[in-house]
Amino acid sequence: MAIEVRIPTILRTYTGGAKSVEGSGATLAELFGDLDARHSGLRERLVDDSGLRRFVNVYLNDEDVRFLGGLETPVKDGDTVTVLPAVAGGQR
Amino acid sequence: MLTIAPELHAEIVAHARADHPDEACGIIAGPVGSDRPERFVPMLNAERSPTFYRFDSTEQLRVWREMDERDEEPVVIYHSHTATEAYPSRTDISYASEPGAHYVLVSTREPDETEFRSFRIAGGAVTEEEVRIAAGAAGPGPE
Questions:
Q1: What residues 62-101 of chain B have any CB closer than 8 A to a CB of chain A?
Q2: CATH code for the structural domain at A3-85
Q3: ipTM here
Q4: What is this structure's pTM?
């Protein structure tokens, strides 16, 4: 068992085109670190120095992790993490 | 070029008018790879703001999963500007993450006339494209 991570089209250049990849870790931060070992560059598209990038939404199962513990959210085998690009903008 | 059925064009304009002076946003889904906008999905603007919009993240996950199950993708991603022209702002460009989508902008700044324009946004570059409103283009209802 592992944690399934679903990757949006825009980031599949980092996964060789794969729609989902597997990883492990006790928290989301560890999971992203683990993924980056095999999919170099992916982590930097998801997080910056201040935490999750505002351009992406990350979900643990059905919950936006911003409403859970952010990068410190605990994850476990059998979970599904979904990454989607945030859709946003404005007049300026 | 964006080819869109008149009913779908009217739905976008009606949504933008209904939410004015806040920005309205949503998508039109269509079969993957078809470039045919078919299924109108208005989205909540989680910001409820006259100057910003952001899809509600929980609703977005539900809609994106539904598209996955139906082999669809967001063919059109639309939002309104309520006091400025229908042209992508710097913020719009920095967030644009679907190089294959038609980014539709409508402006509701004039009460009697709704500007409706379509753009491709890829790698920070904006390219305006022609909009063809065509009866008989894929849309709701019978062919």
A1: 64, 77, 79, 81-84, 88-92, 94-100
A2: 3.10.20.30
A3: 0.89
A4: 0.91
